[in-house]
Amino acid sequence: MTEAFARAARLLPPQLKAATELLSEAERRTAEEIRLRCGYRPTVLLPAGERALEAPPVTQELLRDVLQAASDGSFHAVAEELRRGFVTARGGVRVGVCGSAAVDGNIRTLRAFSSLCIRIPRQVRDAGREILPLLGEGSVLLLSPPGGGKTTLLREIVRTWSDGGTRVALADERGEIAAAQDGAPQFDVGRCTDVLSGAPKAEAALLLLRSMNPQVIALDEISAPEDAAAVLQLAGCGIRVLATAHAEDVSALRRRAVYRTLLKEHIFQQAVVISRAVARVYRVEPL
């Protein structure tokens, strides 16, 4: 079983973990997610699509057991993450959560869990190596739909720049990029990288700017006005930004309101568009 798949499978109760062991080595190596939906058999997401596992239908008790494992036995410790719809377990394994929302103006938490999406994080050495020489000295935005490989490529660019001597500060809000445990990254993000995990990315980026004298600040998923405002402030201070965004291509990006000011002010000089047929394809475009 691959190390990445094994990290995700550790969250599963014995009967379900045994079902994942019936997958072939190639399937475990390429699996992207384990999906658990109450009342249905669990599935694994492979490049060709979802495949049902040889296991009984998922129960709410099973969902709670998996979340207990992901939170090291304490829902209270991950209350803020649950409010945002996910829990990040050890090793950078992100567990997306659906259920009934408790609302008081805003979502306070999720309860009566109905489904979980266990993402399988992988470090892919030299991902996108063919486009690295094409990246100039300006800021870079990585684009793809959800699940397209943005975080994997961001991690590898961070590692490459950092090992080349560039001071990189990484705002790892969800703990997926570096997967730090007790302060030590479990993924290789380079020898000149400083990691701040768990804090909202906009706040974390500005803290890193003040405290770590970075040349590059990297952050995952610009998705809210406060994220865009922080990036504007970083650019105004002469910081190179490496970030990701959910968009199929540059034209789709231009239709999203949160990016309009960033594009108008030419904060990012290049976009790397990630597409996929069988393997991922990387394309660099000017912005």
Structure overview:
The chain has 287 residues and is an alpha/beta fold. It contains ten helices and 15 strands. It has a seven-stranded mixed beta sheet, sandwiched between helices. Strands 3-2-1-6-5-4 form a six-stranded antiparallel beta sheet. The N and C termini lie far apart (41 Å). The mean pLDDT is 89.
* Number of helices in the DSSP assignment: 10
Into which percent range does the helicity of residues fall?
25-40%
- The class by helix and strand makeup works out as alpha/beta
Q: Tell me about the biggest sheet?
A: 7 strands, mixed
Strand order of the largest sheet: 11-8-12-13-7-14-15
Outline the fold blueprint.
Layout: H1 3-9, H2 14-20, H3 25-30, E1 33-37, E2 43-46, E3 49-52, H4 60-70, H5 79-83, E4 86-89, E5 93-104, E6 106-119, E7 140-144, H6 150-163, E8 168-172, E9 180-181, E10 184-185, E11 193-197, H7 201-212, E12 216-219, H8 225-236, E13 240-246, H9 250-254, H10 260-264, E14 270-276, E15 280-286
Parallel strand pairs: 7-13, 7-14, 8-11, 8-12, 12-13
Antiparallel strand pairs: 1-2, 1-6, 2-3, 4-5, 5-6, 9-10, 14-15
Helix pairs in contact: 7-8
Quickly describe the structure.
With 287 residues, the protein is an alpha/beta fold. It contains ten helices and 15 strands. The strands form three sheets. The chain has a seven-stranded mixed sheet, sandwiched between helices. It has a six-stranded antiparallel sheet with strand order 3-2-1-6-5-4. A two-stranded antiparallel ribbon has the order 9-10.
